[in-house]
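Before relying on records like the one below, remember that each one covers exactly one chain. Contacts with other chains, cofactors or solvent are not represented anywhere in the record.
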Amino acid sequence: MNKLTLRLNTILGELAKCNTFADVGCDHGYVAEAMLSEGKCDFVYVTDVSGVCLKKAEDLLKNNYDGKFKAIVTDGLKNVPKVEQVLIAGMGGELICDILKNADFLPERLVLQPMKNTEKVRKTVISLGYKMVKDTTFKDVKYYDLIVCEKGEESYSEYEIEFGRDNLRDKGDAFKEVILKKLAVIDVATKTASEEERKRLENLKKKYEEVIS
């Protein structure tokens, strides 16, 4: 039985087949289990800063995948052996940036799903020598950003850093909905704003309208 939510299935769909894989902050370990069960990797490291939380993933994997995984209580990628692909999902963007900056190694491929501050993640991965092969927004009740990176050089414009290159190019439904919600908030705020603040909001509104036009 597939235990994955639409969000986790979307993330799984972006994970490439590899030999070694690490799921950082793995929660219940559902993605790690799916990677093994679908033959998308040979060995998985599941990590968490909390041993109590990590035990949920251990219990899930130990019966059917003994010898194909290792659970490590650690902060981010510290003390994790080098792997080809790393997933970091469900965390704030600043925490993801800290994990990457302080990692013992950086993999060939990253799949990242920050809960906020996605623009900081984009800046960080570029500074660490990654190019983004996918950078989009999707919806599973809430809205989520998803970034897939591989080692390589990248040049992003200011707008691409803020909104995501694929979003600006494709203008998908989820991205448009996010921007329309922002525009609705601006319309409400403008009604009671000071003259100076109103000008700022009008400029912001113009920018948001441009990116979905």
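The two ends are 42 Å apart (CA to CA).
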